[in-house]
Amino acid sequence: MTEHEPELAAAAEIRARIDTDKPHSARFWNYFVGGKDHYEVDREIGDHIKEIFPGLVDVARTSRHFLGRAVTHLAGEQGIRQFLDIGTGLPTADNTHEVAQRVAPDARIVYVDNDPLVLAHARALLTSTPEGETAYLDANLYEPEAVLKAAEHTLDFSKPVALMILNTLGHVAEYDQARDLVSRLMAGLPSGSYLVISDSTATSEGMIAASDAYNASGAVPYYVRAVDEIAGFFDGLELVEPGVVQVTQWRPEAAGSVVDAYGAVGRKP
């Protein structure tokens, strides 16, 4: 076996896992935020949903901006130096590590996703400053203890960690299961850690129709939830002001638009 054969075999295995016949949420979202890593099937459902509910494009873009403001706040004002980002999605501009290390070059970030296309791009694009570290785990949200165990190779769980789960929990059909997964992940993090969540919400007929159209496309379903269900993920945590709000209203730099997506940041006592 030559020096490069294991890498080529791994790349072939990743390519074999990529299904281009059905839309995929990471590629679909990448299309909406202006990325380049998507296929015709993703663009077709994306354009169809734009016709049904153009506001979903705003949800995708403003949710990305929420990530930037939340990470900047945590790294800057709260001194957080460790981030566990589950449901990473495809790398675009201002990924978690880029925002965090812009504020704190020594920040350490672990990304978690189980999409083969995300994995293929993560290896090339999720880099780090010399002072910090960035790692990628090909792992599953449904196995929180295994995720935490693997993240220990990069993160020090004796110190606070910011757990980021953005636009991901909607893939968990049962709300009680989604809450359980979040609780198990937070249970493995020390006092002073933070939880950051944002998700699309069932706050307009347009968003509900867009969700139904996406779920009918053959993609892995995404379920929009009520605002009080998003708030329920933060039970037992200390909410950072302004609490659970539309992502555009969370510490905005300017007046934000109305969108069907809510988010919050909470601190573990």
Structural overview:
With 269 residues, the chain is an alpha/beta fold. The chain is 42% helix and 15% strand. The protein contains ten helices and eight strands. It has helices spanning 5-17, 25-32, 40-52, 55-76, 96-103, 116-125, 144-151, 175-187, 205-215, 227-232; strands at 82-86, 108-113, 133-138, 162-166, 194-200, 238-239, 245-246, 261-267. Strands 1, 2, 3, 4, 5, 6, 7 and 8 form an eight-stranded mixed beta sheet that branches. β2, α6 (116-125) and β3 form a beta-alpha-beta unit. α3 (40-52) packs antiparallel against α9 (205-215) and α4 (55-76) packs parallel to α5. It starts with a helix and ends with a strand. The model is unreliable at 3-10 (pLDDT under 50).
List its salient traits:
269 residues; alpha/beta; 10 helices; 8 strands; globular
Quick synopsis:
With 269 residues, this protein is an alpha/beta fold. It contains ten helices and eight strands.
Written as H for each helix and E for each strand, in order along the chain, the element string is HHHHEHEHEHEHEHHEEE
Could you tell me how far the N terminus lies from the C terminus, measured between alpha carbons in angstroms?
Answer: 53 Å
Low-confidence stretches: 3-10
Q: How much helix, percentage-wise, in residues?
A: 40-55%
- Number of E strands: 8
Rounded Rg: 18 Å
Mean pLDDT: 87
